[in-house]
Specification:
Blueprint: H1 6-16, E1 21-24, H2 31-37, E2 44-47, H3 51-65, E3 69-74, H4 75-91, E4 96-102, H5 118-122, E5 128-131, H6 138-150, E6 156-162, H7 163-167, H8 188-198, E7 204-208, H9 210-215, H10 218-228, E8 231-234, E9 249-252, H11 258-265, E10 270-274, E11 295-300, E12 314-317, H12 320-334, H13 337-367, H14 376-386, E13 392-396, H15 401-407, E14 416-418, H16 427-437, E15 443-448, H17 449-452, H18 458-464, E16 470-475, H19 480-489, H20 513-519, E17 524-527, H21 533-542, E18 547-552
Helix pairs in contact: 1-6, 3-4, 3-16, 8-12, 10-12, 14-15, 14-21
Length: 559
């Protein structure tokens, strides 16, 4: 056998695990590995100019494929730039293997230039973090990382790869990683007990998150909600977990104020939590949000999520799809005719209320359709008419998301992704990753003018690799989310202060997003009037390559 170094063994292991893209930004401590990649024509090096954007591209790719993305960063400085995006990937439970090069184990004692404890940097924002320190365990550790990243609840993992370890000869075997099957069902008695407790609910609520999407349990969640006659709220749901057009879809709980989330369950006598934790808020509820007499059933493959912050009645560490299916069957058996009738009436009423609210919101949009400054609904309504049926949306429009999704309404799994909050700048690079994974489908990524500036370098990657994603920047020259939050923060009745801090605005100079995109190789168009919208959308969708729309919008702050 020809002696080979760890550089080749590492890449052979990635190949054995079906990884065909390596997202990276090159640096000096990875030069041997970067040189070896050129000998692997079936492994495409997707180059990014900044690590925060790069990791978000990998995140979009992994979310679209459901398989781990591989990332190669440069030492502590590159890893440091990526920390915010890794936080996003951790909370989205994105399968991702992140590696970072460093000079070598031999140089630890020197505390040389760019040296840092990479594992300590990565540990708070990854599911698992480790460092290869000997050639006999380099590939073994890489397989472990792939396994941990791919095992639900999935998440990013980190492996430091010192160059002197990679430089040494490596005779480790290369084998496909074995990912354990976690499709576990709960004990039937637990399901039966839960069904009996839930059957008589008068005011039920379902809270569901990304664990439902990861399990492929959308149909099962719909069936369970219909059987129980319950509305469904998304909590930390960055993918579609239920069609938003379904009568029982209630919306998202948000991620800012615990008082808002607590209000969702305040009157509920029974709550089912599935594939998420309670509650993912910045200013969370420190007291138990559930009624003292409420039945709370929590289903999740992550045992840490169950009763994480507040007590539950029954907790089941099990697969959401299998569990919801079993729970629906059991509930159908134990419910009386009267309970079934009540559930049906409840579902019908909620559906009617939902349809009325949706109709009223759209009518309000229509009434202001021709206004200037332009409103997001003027763009979203035409997008809904002109986008192909298989289009994929990555939504980081934030304060403009309600208007966007009222018209471009998420209905099918794999067609809608959004930020769960916490990290800005995920929308544009996320769209690049989605398009790389789904090259035959139209992909449109939305971001705000503030958030987009965190990762605008992703446009260069789209142009460089000819990734034909489409981008929309919602430009209101301000951090409007901060303004909306400040309105909530101001005391009620405080009419004496209604001027926002000047640094909540992003102008003087006003950013020219079209010119900036052009400098990165992506053509675009600015839209500021409703009459310009159709031409701009046709130009974006008809262009053979990446394209950006800068949509100049009103600066109105509700409340």
């Amino acid at each position: 056998m020809t002696a080979v170094t760890g550089h080749r063994r590492l890449l052979e292991q990635l190949r054995a695990d079906g990884i065909r893209h390596l997202f990276g930004n090159p640096g000096s401590s990875e030069e041997g590995l970067l040189d070896e990649i050129t000998r692997f024509p079936d492994l495409e090096y997707v180059m990014g100019l900044q690590e925060a954007a790069l990791v978000c591209m990998a995140d979009g790719y992994a979310q679209a494929t459901g398989k781990p993305a591989a990332v190669l960063l440069h030492s502590g400085v590159g890893l440091g730039n990526a920390v915010g995006s890794l936080y996003h990937a951790l909370h989205r439970q994105t399968p991702m293997v992140v590696m970072a090069g460093e000079a070598g184990v031999a140089y630890d004692a020197l505390e040389a230039h760019m040296s840092a404890d990479l594992v300590d940097i990565a540990r708070p924002v990854t599911k698992y973090a480790t460092r290869a320190i000997h050639p006999a365990s380099l590939v073994r550790l890489l397989r472990r990382c792939v396994k941990v990243a791919s095992t639900p609840p999935c998440g990013p993992v980190f492996l430091a790869v010192p160059q002197d370890v990679l430089d040494q000869f490596n005779d480790e075997p290369v084998l496909p990683t074995v990912v354990p099957d976690t499709r576990v069902a709960p004990e039937p008695g637990a399901v039966e007990a839960a069904a009996k407790l839930l059957a008589g609910a008068r005011n039920p609520v379902i809270l569901a998150g990304d664990g439902v999407a990861a399990s492929g349990a959308v149909d099962e969640l719909v069936r369970f909600a219909e059987t129980w006659g319950s509305g469904v709220w998304g909590a930390m749901a960055s993918q579609l977990i239920m069609p938003w057009t379904h009568p029982l879809w209630a919306g998202l709980t948000g991620h800012m104020f615990g008082t808002d989330s607590a209000a969702v369950v305040a009157e509920a006598d029974a709550v089912v939590v599935c594939g998420t934790y309670v509650f993912p808020d910045v200013f969370g509820a420190t007291t138990n949000p559930f009624r003292a007499d409420a039945t709370v059933v929590h289903i999740d493959l992550d045992p840490a999520a169950i009763a994480k912050n507040h007590p539950v009645t029954i907790g089941m560490v099990s697969d959401p799809r299998l569990t919801l299916r079993a729970l629906s069957d059991s509930l159908s058996r134990v419910m009386t005719d009267a309970q079934r009738g009540t559930a049906a009436e409840r579902a019908q009423q909620r559906g009617s209320d939902s349809a009325t609210a949706r109709s009223q919101a759209r009518a309000a949009d229509e009434a202001r359709r021709e206004e200037t400054p332009m409103r997001m609904s003027a763009v979203a309504a035409r997008l809904a008419d002109l986008l192909p049926p298989d289009a994929i949306i990555f939504d980081e429009a934030l304060t403009n998301s309600p208007a966007l999704t009222r018209w471009v309404t998420p209905e099918r799994p794999g067609h809608f992704f959004q930020t769960p909050g916490g990290t800005l700048g995920v929308g544009l690079p996320g769209a690049v990753g989605l398009k790389l994974a789904q090259p035959d489908r139209t992909v449109v990524g939305f971001s705000g003018d503030g958030g987009s500036m965190y990762t605008y370098q992703a446009l260069w990657s789209a142009a460089h690799h000819r990734i034909a994603a489409k981008f929309v920047v919602c430009h209101n020259s301000s951090y409007r989310l901060l303004k909306e939050n400040l309105v909530r923060y101001w005391p009620d009745g405080d009419s004496g202060r209604r001027e926002f801090p000047p640094f909540f605005d992003v102008h003087e100079p006003t950013i020219d997003f079209v010119a900036l995109a052009g400098a990165l190789g992506v053509p675009g168009m600015q839209v500021s009037k409703p009459g310009e919208v159709d031409e701009a959308i046709h130009a974006m969708l008809g262009h053979d390559g990446p394209y950006l729309l800068e949509v100049v919008l009103d600066r109105e702050v509700p409340g």
